[in-house]
Amino acid sequence: MMSVADPPVKARMYMGWIVFEDHGLEGGTFIRYDQHGVELERWRVAAAVKITELYTWHTLPNGGKMMPLNRLEGGVFPVKRFNAFNVYTLGKQLFPVLRIQQGNHKFSDVMFPFWAAREALFPQLEDDTIFLDASKRAAKSVIEAIDGIVPRTLKEAFEVDQNEAVNQYRIEWVKDAITNLETVLTNDMPGISTYFVTQKGIYRTEDLISHADNHFLEDIRKDIPEQAKGDIREAGKCLAYEVPTACAFHLWRAVETVMGAYYLKLHGKTFVQEGIMRSWDPFIKALDKVGADKKITQFLDHIRKEYRNPQTHPEEMVSLSEAFGLFGAASSSINQMILEIQKNGQAAAQAGP
Question: Which of 160, 191, 222 is the last residue of a domain?
């Protein structure tokens, strides 16, 4: 892994990922989609790494934006999502092959069971399968045994004489390969860490894991800073996976980012430009001085004293029920600040130059 300080580096942040690009190494393409699967942008990358610990802050050479960097973990998608129905389909399609009676059979009698079994096995060779390497090798053996009898394309399969005899020993090779796959799966499956993530309140698991920022109406979401939206999405994942203390951590980061945007809208300068210490107490006092809505700053100060500050200490652990409530509190404070940002923008537009 290259150092983030090695020039020339271009990097960008996306949903907790730091993506390095254009530093002379061969890379792939990083594609960003919206919640409907529509492509938003793409760029060539040489590496993409996941931030797993967020304690040390560094400046990356991407315009001076501060991003948390400490320990980096390789890999683009460390948590796999798989379609459980594929496992059911696999068993459903393999079982008829095992029930083929002994003896020679016409090609037309075995073509469709073999074809269906092979098609059910192909998805288990993809990256999103739950099959481990040994199971994949056993699945490939089944596919190869079927390939020796049934061509890969329907056109070629129907060109075979449908009355051609398929000898018993060839059928037994396929059945033996399937039996071997079953044996390997018997060993592999107990070691696969599969979990069912339960719905949290009214939040669907898919929504929390993939796009928790959709909690906000589009009119609000469009003005939430990308950094804050990334933290909201990370908080949603933590809530879904029942890591409540980490959920609170990301929520307060998101709120802090929006506080900075609110201050910039009211004052025209950032907290950093004004030399304000990086802490919520001076941030809130600074917002008061530039005319922030008192209801908002009082709410933020309540969060600071009762939740955010205590939760920064290692002895304080957040329960799942608490995190669920904090998700709502953080969302409410962000919603209020974005509304005020929008009101100030509208007022400035109406005032004119």
Answer: 191
Question: Among 176, 181, 174, 94, which residue's Cα sits nearest to residue 137?
Answer: 181
Is 80 exceeded by the pLDDT of residue 128? no
Q: Which residue type sits at 324?
A: F
**Which one, of 334, 344, 335, 343, lies nearest residue 267 by Cα?**
344
Task: Report the candidate in 166, 112, 172 with the shortest Cα–Cα distance to residue 142.
Answer: 172
Burial of 339 (0-12, 13-18, 19+ CB in 10 A): middle
Distance CA 200, CA 319 (A): 13
Q: How many domains does the chain have?
A: 3
Is the model's pLDDT at 47 over the cut of 50? no
Q: By residue range, what is the domain housing residue 16?
A: 10-74
Where is the domain boundary, 142, 166, 191? Answer: 191
Per residue in 213-267, pLDDT (tens digit) is 999 999 999 999 999 999 999 999 999 999 999 999 999 999 999 999 999 999 9
Longest dimension (CA), the chain: 90
In the 8-state DSSP scheme, what is residue 70?
Answer: S
Q: How far apart are CA 179 and CA 304, in angstroms?
A: 61
What is the reported pLDDT for 27? 44
Domain-located, residue 145: yes
| 40 vs 22: CA distance, rounded Å | 20
Residue 79 lies inside a defined structural domain of this protein:
no
Report the distance separating Cα 195 and Cα 208, nearest Å. 16
Are 232 and 317 in a shared domain?
A: yes
Q: Tell me if the bond preceding 113 is cis, omega within 30° of 0.
A: no
